[in-house]
Design brief:
Helices cover 55% and strands 14% of the residues. With 196 residues, the protein is of the alpha+beta class. The strands form three sheets. It has a three-stranded antiparallel beta sheet, sandwiched between helices. The termini are far apart.
Length: 196
């Protein structure tokens, strides 16, 4: 009789121990059955598993966020190193044509697109220069303000523009320059002053 009594009391506990040993994520939570004490134990265990799952998911989400932030930091680091490298090389150059050609070539390695040109603003004289390949073209002084205003608008860069917007820019360029159907615009500043 004592063996039967001990076995009937311990059997639900032994089943609980076996269930805990063999548990996997598909079997969560454990089924609630047994005596009151076993029921409470299983219920507490299921509560603990639920919290562990919640914290595990939170940790996975934090890890994903951290991985993305690390990628962003790496990207920014590479951009800064590229910028410093370009700035260091520009510092050794003496004229605008050489600097412009170097910048266009540098951009060719960074931004995959066809033709590249740079517009440089000389705000002291109110003149803009269009640098394409190895040529520097002075843009009419009367168009300086319009071009400077369009280029200096506060917006996120790069700006991608279609045919209609490109035609607005085309008016400002010399007539013998071919403008494409689409354009990406990147502005560059120095101490909050638009340079190009």
């Amino acid at each position: 009789l004592s063996y039967f009594l001990i076995t009937s009391l311990l059997r639900p506990l032994i089943l609980l121990i076996d269930a805990v040993k063999n548990i996997n994520e598909e079997e969560l939570p454990l089924p609630l059955k047994g005596t009151d004490e076993i029921f409470e134990l299983v219920s507490a265990y299921n509560g603990m598993l639920e919290k562990i799952n919640k914290y595990t998911k939170k940790l996975q989400k934090s890890n994903q966020s951290l991985a993305q932030k690390n990628k962003d930091i790496d990207r920014l680091h590479n951009q800064m190193m590229t910028t410093f490298s370009i700035a260091g090389q520009i510092a050794t150059m003496s004229d605008m044509q050489q600097i412009g050609s170097f910048l266009i070539e540098s951009l060719r390695n960074i931004v995959p697109c066809g033709d590249k040109s740079i517009i440089v603003f000389d705000t002291d004289r109110g003149i803009a220069y269009l640098i394409m390949g190895n040529s520097v073209i002075s843009i009419d002084k009367k168009d300086f303000e319009s071009l400077y205003t369009i280029a200096g608008q506060k917006r996120k860069f790069p700006v991608f523009q279609g045919k209609e917007a490109v035609e607005t820019w085309h008016i400002l360029f010399p007539k013998d320059i071919n403008i494409c159907d689409r354009m990406a615009i990147f502005s560059f500043h120095h101490h909050h002053q638009l340079l190009g």
